[in-house]
Amino acid sequence: KLYLSKFIINEQVKMLTFWANDILKIIFNVDQKPTLYQKGWAIYFAFGRNVNQTAMLSQGRCPNAQFLGPALLNDYRFLIDTKGYASVEPNKGTSVPGILWCVSPADFERLDKREGLNMQPPSYRKVTKFVRFMLPFPIGPDGNGIIEADIYVSNRPEGQEAFPGYIEEILEGFG
User: Cβ(103)–Cβ(42) under 8 Å?
Assistant: First the structure.
């Protein structure tokens, strides 16, 4: 039993190390090749439907996006707007869980359109916030896990109910 437990833990550490190295290559110039970040890609923090990989990687959203991993938006709270979709608002002492993605400029154009940035009035606005990357090792410019990411914030007021099936889709993405 002890040998099996050590083996499983060792395999998990190896898997995390490979994953971490892949993420570092995507975001930072670890191997001296231009990174996606240097090619104009940006970091996106998803907390609604886009945490679901099936939805996020669909042709109508961001088929080229690179999954980075879990993160937290600190001092914000999750809410549902009047149309039944996710948003966040400042709230000291609480955090919103989400997923970080590395997104190409073309994918962001599709996502901006999907999130209604071009509508009059716009459904959402895109803002940049600091998020904490939830990896078990130092990452980010200061090594503290804090990086900048784009997020979408609804322009609609808080509502009462989520669009049917919406919360289930979010939970499936975190599963």
Answer: yes
